From TrEMBL:
Pfam families: DUF484 (PF04340)
Positions in coiled-coil regions: 38-65
Presence of the UniProt keyword Electron transport in the record: no
Protein name: DUF484 family protein
TM spans (from-to): none
Organism: Trinickia terrae
Matches recorded under InterPro entries: DUF484, GAF-like_dom_sf
Alphabetical keyword list: Coiled coil
Record bears the keyword RNA-binding: no
Amino acid sequence: MNDREVAEYLLANPGFFDEHAELLATIRLANPHGKAAVSLQERQMEMLREKNKHLERRLAELLRYGHENDSIATKFNRWTMRVMAERDGYALPRAVSQGLTEVFEVPQAALRVWDLAEPYREAEFARHVGEEVRIFANSLAAPYCGANTGFEAAQWLAAPGESATAAGDPAVVPATADYAATQSIALVALRDPRAGDEGAAFGLLVMGSPDPRRFHEGMATDFLAQIGGLASAALSRLLAH
């Protein structure tokens, strides 16, 4: 019999060692942590200990993820209340972007909106946006996260640490800002919730960081999508109808 056949026989006859219990004490196996041999029972116990350690590490990881999600959910509620409480249409984009920097500690955040109602068309957050940006926003089926490869929207961001006063309206920052400091970026399309996910984008929310791993390609985007959805719902009242 070869090794495979022996293994198949033992699997097919689980009562083998019940009938030949004396073999358990005589079988010696190599100790993975040393040169000495150990009994089958000792090796089984060692395997169980390793399995328990793996399960404990996995449980600790799940608990950590749970705490992180709870923290994000708490911050999302705080940001939501700030946005919902803002009644001034001109200040609403500021509440969205500044709230992200203060509540979520995002180093950089800005947004621009187009197709606005007449009273808001001269506001800072309504400054000209290139056609390429609009096309890109319309193409976003989900938030984009990754390296800043020279996105036009990165020019809207204030340099990390720049005050809201120095930057002007934090909803949008002049293109003279040091946006080269933005290494990673998140882009979220703003869509009228009444038109559904298929509706045309009326704006773009951008978040940036000098940390190249803050927004990376493999990260989950569920909360970013929720942020985009709520920001869209709030800002849609500024649109021309």
